[in-house]
Amino acid sequence: MITARDIMETNIISLSPDTEIPKAVKILLKNHINGVPVVDANGELLGILCQSDLIFQQKEIPIPPIFAILDSIFPLSSSKSLDEQFQKMAAIKVAQAMVKKVTTVTPDTPVSEIASLMVEKHFHTIPVAEGKKLLGIIGKEDILKTLIS
């Protein structure tokens, strides 16, 4: 059985949370990668930044739905959600745009499970970690390579 350990990339390109967005974009484009883990000085995983997180910045500002009755206005969406969207759209640093709740796999996770995560959750990049310690990264290409060996 092929596991994450067998296919993960251990020469990891990563970012710090203080990296500025233009530099992060250049790193993604230069290396032809969809996502990059965000780590602290100890190599602990803090989040992941994907192309889709950066494309989000080009989105139009959403107008929150409201309900008006008797001259009162009631928002139909969470103001917290709206605040998070505005923060992500105005991000200057990676910490403001990254996804903080990262789905990870362990080195022993079977490739079939990783493939399922990628398909069902629309992930392109999945970090391999033990606890908070980042050990590797798996992209869709790594899964595809298993089909030719």
What would you call the shape?
Answer: globular
- Highest-level CATH class: Alpha Beta
Low-confidence stretches: none
Distance between the termini: 13 Å
Compute the number of strand runs. 6
What is the succession of H and E elements?
HHEEHEEHHHEEH
Range of strand content: 15-25%
Instruction: Let me know the CATH homologous superfamily.
Output: CBS-domain
Examine the coordinates and then state which fold CATH places here, giving the name of the CATH topology: CBS-domain
Approximately how much helix is present in the residues?
25-40%
Write the topology of this structure.
Layout: H1 4-7, H2 21-31, E1 35-39, E2 45-50, H3 51-55, E3 66-69, E4 72-75, H4 79-89, H5 94-97, H6 111-121, E5 125-130, E6 133-139, H7 140-145
Antiparallel strand pairs: 1-2, 3-4, 5-6
Overall description:
- It contains 7 helices and 6 strands, in the order ααββαββαααββα.
- With 149 residues, it is α+β, with helices and mostly antiparallel strands.
- It has a two-stranded antiparallel sheet with strand order 1-2.
- The longest helix is centred in the first third of the chain and has 11 residues, at 21-31.
